[in-house]
Model the fold of this input.
Amino acid sequence: MQDDRRDVLNRLAQEARQGDGETLEVLLMECRSRLQRYFSTRARNRDDCEDLVQEVLLRVSSALPKTELNAPFDHWLYRIASNCLITYYSRAYRQRETAFTQLSDPDSITDLQQDSFEASLLERVADEQAQAMLVRIVKEVCSDVERRVILMHAQRESPESIAQMLQMKPATLRTHLMRGRAKVLAYLIQHRADLLGGSEAIQTAVAALERSGDAPLTEAERRALQETTPKQTDLRRAALKLAKYLRLE
Amino acid sequence: MYADCLEMTRSDHQHKQAHLSAEEILELAERGRRCPRYEEYIDHITECAVCRETYKQLLRAELTVRAARKRVWTPTLRIWVPVAAAAMLVLFFGVWILRSNSSQSLALRQVNGVWYEGAMRLPDWAFAAAAQFERPPTPTTRDVQDTAPPAVRLIRPNPANAALDSLTPEFQWERATDAVRYRAWLEHADDTLKINLKVDGVRAMLPEGAQLKAGEEYRLVVEALSADELAGEGLRAVYEFRTLTPEQQERLLWARANRSQAPRACAVIFYQLGFYADVLETLNTLPNEPLVQQWRAAAQEQIRLR
Done:
């Protein structure tokens, strides 16, 4: 039912884009009821609600003919509506919209943004087939939350944006991201060392780590790198330390 | 490139082939983890860039609305909470002052010519007593010589009271040291009458069929006799009482029945009738305000004089 209505809406939008005035009227009528529902609980009073509806409808009618829709029409409509809402409140309080960093712990955000020593391993993969395989590994070894965090991060979402979308604190996000990465890297070292250039490449990474002056591997972590059934916590710690010295082949 | 790559992995999930509707994304932005299909929606958003972009935009708007509402409420509360607290404080002290200064005027009220103490309707004589509560008696300054404690200590009726609540009273006293038997009798205050009481251990009562005259004064004499003492040789204790007239008995019964509803009127009635122990008991139910303290002092003085 909902899909039918969306289809109708998309079809009306396509026709309206081509200059059909009557279809545009019908489309705007359809939009009006949705917008009224959206703004009625968000605007401060009924008059403002009506003003906001009018403003969005004006923007839709003027922008629609000039816009190439790369998203469903209802998405486009609600993006305009939410933009108007943000502007409305920003105007009301004479300040810009509240940044997410002001709503939660800004220190953790900064900390996470500076955490670039380990650029996502996924980002270094050039080959599409290898990428798909890595995505499958992520899905296999990570928890749901870790998977979401890693995949969003791989799609160049900023840490604060991911934290906002998943409604978690930046520190929690960082934990999930690090844990997920550790699991993926440990899996690669243990089961798909060939993707990293084989055991020789891993030994080279160990040597590079030791030369770098960063925290060296402990004895347990060294053992975990060599054993066939290592203790996973040791292997994951070792994998995180080696991450920036490893390259996907 | 990643989007393409991710697209390849979603072919096994029907819901991932299409975009979420804007309403579904709005529901997710509004309700977050409480959204019934949170897992499904967020999994889709993780992999679908279009829906994610819409989700981010709607989420930003939601956060802006919430922040704006918070900005409205916080200053309002900052003003009204202290004002409300101050008002409560003023009210509390106001009530406290009223209760301590004008308890009598608060307690007594007239409705259609009828007087009430609290919710208790007062007979005229009780109203007269209640009105007298504002004028407590001045304690006498008579010195009482220190006397030895009585040889026999009366338990019942309460020796603190100056009157008997019955015309056929029963008496009871504490066992005296060395006493093996007791004699007890009542004498009229003018010595015109003597009634020997029927003694049973430490209890005594009037002979069968006898009763005291109303509104008269009597002396109770109890004599404790040791094994080798004869009648008249033992230690004696004397207590003075008076009996109530029928009208006084009626008032006593009323006061005892209504002391919790009309404590001020009843305390005065008890005092007038000579039931000082009852006066103290009734005053203990009232706030310890100056008038109550004066009435308590007066009752204690009367007990001391006995």
